[in-house]
Hints:
heterodimer; membrane (chain A)
Amino acid sequence: xxxxxxxxxxxxxxxxxxxxxxxxxxxxxxxxxxxxxxxxxxxxxxxxxxxxxxxxxxxxxxxxxxxxxxxxxxxxxxxxxxxxxxxxxxxxxxxxxxxxxxxxxxxxxxxxxxxxxxxxxxxxxxxxxxxxxxxxxxxxxxxxxxxxxxxxxxxxxxxxxxxxxxxxxxxxxxxxxxxxxxxxxxxxxxxxxxxxxxxxxxxxxxxxxxxxxxxxxxxxxxxxxxxxxxxxxxxxxxxxxxxxxxxxxxxxxxxxxxxxxxxxxxxxxxxxxxxxxxxxxxxxxxxxxxxxxxxxxxxxxxxxxxxxxxxxxxxxxxxxxx
Amino acid sequence: xxxxxxxxxxxxxxxxxxxxxxxxxxxxxxxxxxxxxxxxxxxxxxxxxxxxxxxxxxxxxxxxxxxxxxxxxxxxxxxxxxxxxxxxxxxxxxxxxxxxxxxxxxxxxxxxxxxxxxxxxxxxxxxxxxxxxxxxxxxxxxxxxxxxxxxxxxxxxxxxxxxxxxxxxxxxxxxxxxxxxxxxxxxxxxxxxxxxxxxxxxxxxxxxxxxxxxxxxxxxxxxxxxxxxxxxxxxxxxxxxxxxxxxxxxxxxxxxxxxxxxxxxxxxxxxxxxxxxxxxxxxxxxxxxxxxxxxxxxxxxxxxxxxxxxxxxxxxxxxxxxxxxxxxxxxxxxxxxxxxxxxxxxxxxxxxxxxxxxxxxxxxxxxxxxxx
Lengths: 322, 372
């Protein structure tokens, strides 16, 4: 029984680590999409952030500089997206595809130009990374049954960025639902004419939404390469941006629900490594590809209205013409 | 922008795309220069790699074949105002269709029965993989972009599972199927030319290139000369009007997506039947996404798609050459160029429209509008 509890805790611990980039990207996606902009470029921004964080941390030796550079680079990608689909009213999906392809090309080119390691960045020493934080009192509580174990395995011992991601969810929810900016942001995604006629700039609001999203993706990227990992490797984002997008839809464009979706998808991913080749009673062996495909299957079923009905922002995907 | 005079047709169809392409290439050139290489030299190496060596034209046209198919796939859906991002997955699953036909019929039938069935299999599986998102969009109100993205990942999961599991060749490590019987091999161009006594350099170029040219013709006739094509374009321009005109909008969208997927699936004829003669992991290699750039640049017209495919064929073959000639720039340069082209010919397609129109008025090539 105690062994089972420990296994479960370790799985939940892995869930939290795997869900962190998803949570950050999903919040980014919510900001963009609630302002009326389709953001399939989460993937590209995540990849850019991961590369820039690792590259800057490798050159300067500072994880913090890596983080800030990642945020800057990812915001820059957001601004390209905004320039194309807000300023020039281009197709948002096309622009997103362009950014994703640019990111996968540019990260490798810059990686080879800077480090000549086939697109990878050098392995980072621990002091240039965001390492696990040991909470106060782990030793003292260690002897307390159950609670001590939970405290040690699940609550303590994550990187700063994991806690940051978790703290950012209520902050995003607060900004989205309780602040003036959030109210306007939601309005601009539903009925931009109304916002415009109130004398508020639709363009500037949408740009701000994209900038916030870019910053969040940058943090997510930094988490991948200088916290969870210790260097950048090609195509490191590996579709996580798209899974985050699936979580946004699964969460019906709401922060807490999206958080739940990210944790669920993270849990499934954590489960695959534990269930690989394991013969479960009654069910037999589950193909890991099937488990990894669950986010995509769920999203397809959800969008088709087979489980609940998602309500996307009304003005999503449409450039605003005065 | 109400004071912008409309561009004349020639400027809209030729000048504007050329300007967009030029700007995309110029930015890539700047990036190459920042890395510390000479951009003109780099583009020179690419052109040389794509044409000069004996086998290079064959390689260029082999890549072109892939892009014609995936470009047609995106273009067909575009005419119905559907954005099919799923060409990658449809081509991947198309390979599965070709493999099924090759394994089921190949050992017993001669080539003239096997090959058509393989080609049909590729088209049918690709069509199915696009038709489901089409159906979900038309009947269930899903979003085609998201659904086709998800179907790409589903295709990847399915293929990994099949290639590493049930369909994996026994007794080997890499996830791929057994090699097909020779009755399911598409002949290489060099072999065909050899029959007529003409010797050309060996390359992966095979007969599916001719199939791609035929597909361009079929696409033209379908979109502009048939009733179905008219319906597809009408639904794309204005679904409400199409509905009032008695067109079954949902049915048209589903059919358009199926045809789109069939074109994407046919890409497998080149890679699976023509080159690898088996299904290997990730044989689509991003060609499905390149199809988006091809359709955007080619303005969804067969001639444009052919030219854009040729351009990307040159870039891919020439890009491979970069690896040998330079230390710090590699074939990933092609991804960068591709991204820039999608950005400038797609998302920013009309950025240069107003300044170009004003310029043409000023130099007197176009009459300005009097009352704006």
